[in-house]
């Protein structure tokens, strides 16, 4: 089967520092010591592309007139999901009368800006139009399948992957299917939807998408896993599993996250993180974002990450400030942690002119942070450091460092091959990059 613009993939790239210990232990063990990002991506999608992945966001159609919103979305993301505009109530408001105007607006914006699209969603118990909410039985089954066929046909050739079915399982310990009107049409409704979607758009990847499926020990995770295993064994056309990944203090990123993603991937499907947001702020939020990013990068079949909105103020739970940009459009600490983690895929970049340098984020304060550099391969080195944005240097140690903004030059001052600088962030918390020449 041919696929629409599959993301570039590098084979067998694995990170070694996998999530370990309790959820709280995510802090401090992940991703510090990312290597020098020679040729590093300076945006989320460029950095993700280094390991053949995408980095996406949900877009709300009514925000496309907001210049700050579209400029961040265009710059940082290359996979777009309509937050509400392709759902059942939006696309089939009256039975048999389809309205694709709002969905088309987002798809057109994405494709005309060189991005791909995740379709969300064809069959769901929630956000059903009124006429569907009142339906049951065979009438509903036929209406649902017609909806899948019509919507997937309308967008044929434009969708990278569809969330064919969304949130079909109960929360809690039962491991049961959610008792919805769709479920009451018969337990085979999910596979029926997948067959209809495949027929309507043979080139789109077909995903099952759900939340609270992150912890490998949870009954809901295992129930979804069992369904996917069953589908794969019987040849039901499923290509991918979407992990929504809505986290907060009561539901933090679990220590088993990488294991969960890997176990699903081992069934022979791709995995995608589809609606990531993590309530919180500062370092603890940033470390959890980094943990999710690292878990995805550690699973070869994890194709990419989408966050569920651009700025905190755009979020469906804005009060939890769960995204990567603040309400004024500034990059948050979480942004730079994600960017650095994505850039760590450039690990193993060959030394330039006989030496290499690794760059590590160290202590942080409210307005500044330390960066340390370790040179290998030469004792007569020069390291060129590229600061990010309007960052400036407050201080340097164990090397002669020339310059204070933009590109700095560091040379040995008799204190060995490891040195450091203190950087004023001035709103940009991304890690500087560095190259070494010997
Ligand atoms: O468009 C109307 C507007 O006309 C009206 O004035 C306003 C008054 O409340 O409501 C607007 O509609 C809201 C819509 O978002 C657009 O903002 C709906 O009430 C509101 O229910 C809807 O919420 C969406 C929610 O899904 C509905 O289930 C969120 O934006 C959207 O982020 C959220 O997304 C879901 C995913 O699809 C599935 N996974 C969970 C995720 C978060 O809940």
Condensed summary:
By secondary structure, the protein is an alpha/beta fold. The chain is built from 11 helices and 17 strands.
Total DSSP E strands: 17
Structural class of the secondary structure composition? alpha/beta
- The residue-averaged pLDDT reads 90
SS strand fraction: 15-25%
* End-to-end gap: 49 Å
Query: Ligands in the structure?
Result: ligand G3I
Count of helical segments? 11
Low-confidence stretches: 1-38
- Strand order within the widest beta sheet: 1-2-3-4-5-6-8-9
As a whole number of angstroms, the C-alpha radius of gyration is 23 Å
**Largest sheet at a glance?**
8 strands, parallel, barrel
Order of helices and strands: HEHEHHEHHEHEHEEHEHEHEEEEEEEE
Q: Indicate the percent of residues in helices.
A: 25-40%
Shape: elongated
């Amino acid at each position: 089967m041919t696929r629409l613009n599959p993301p570039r993939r590098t084979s067998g790239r694995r990170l070694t520092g996998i999530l370990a210990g309790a959820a709280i232990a995510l802090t401090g063990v992940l991703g510090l010591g990312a290597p020098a990002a020679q040729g590093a991506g300076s945006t989320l999608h460029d950095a993700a592309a280094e390991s053949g992945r995408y980095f996406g966001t949900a877009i709300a159609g009514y925000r496309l007139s907001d210049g700050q919103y579209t400029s961040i979305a265009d710059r940082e993301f290359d996979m777009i999901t309509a937050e509400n505009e392709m759902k059942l109530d939006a696309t089939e408001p009256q039975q048999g009368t389809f309205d694709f105007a709002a969905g088309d607006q987002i798809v057109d914006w994405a494709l005309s800006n060189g991005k791909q699209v995740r379709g969300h969603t064809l069959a769901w118990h929630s956000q059903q139009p009124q006429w569907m909410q009142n339906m049951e039985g065979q009438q509903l089954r036929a209406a649902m399948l017609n909806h899948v066929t019509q919507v997937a046909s309308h967008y044929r050739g434009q969708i990278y992957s569809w969330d064919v079915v969304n949130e079909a399982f109960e929360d809690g310990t039962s491991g049961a299917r959610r008792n919805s009107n769709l479920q009451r049409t018969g337990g085979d409704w999910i596979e029926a939807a997948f067959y209809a979607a495949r027929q309507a758009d043979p080139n789109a990847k077909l995903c099952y998408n759900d939340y609270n499926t992150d912890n490998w020990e949870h009954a809901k995770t295992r129930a979804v896993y069992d369904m996917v295993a069953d589908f794969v064994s019987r040849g039901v056309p499923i290509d991918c599993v979407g992990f929504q990944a809505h986290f907060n203090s009561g539901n933090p990123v679990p220590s088993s996250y990488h294991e969960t993603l890997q176990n699903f991937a081992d069934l022979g499907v791709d995995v995608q993180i589809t609606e990531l947001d993590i309530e919180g702020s500062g370092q603890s939020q940033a470390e959890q974002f980094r943990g999710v990013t690292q878990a995805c990068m550690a699973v070869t079949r994890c194709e990419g990450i989408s966050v569920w909105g651009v700025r905190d103020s755009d979020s469906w739970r804005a009060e939890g400030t769960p995204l990567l940009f603040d309400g004024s459009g500034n990059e948050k600490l979480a942004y730079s942690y994600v960017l650095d983690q994505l850039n760590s895929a450039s690990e193993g970049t060959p030394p330039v002119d006989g030496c290499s340098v690794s760059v590590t984020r160290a202590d942080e304060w409210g307005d500044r942070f330390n960066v340390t550099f370790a040179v290998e391969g030469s004792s007569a080195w020069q390291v060129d450091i590229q600061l990010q944005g309007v960052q400036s240097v407050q201080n340097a140690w164990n090397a002669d460092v020339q310059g204070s903004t933009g590109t700095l030059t560091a040379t040995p001052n008799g204190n060995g091959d490891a040195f450091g600088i203190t950087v004023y962030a001035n709103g940009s918390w991304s890690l500087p990059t560095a190259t070494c020449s010997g």
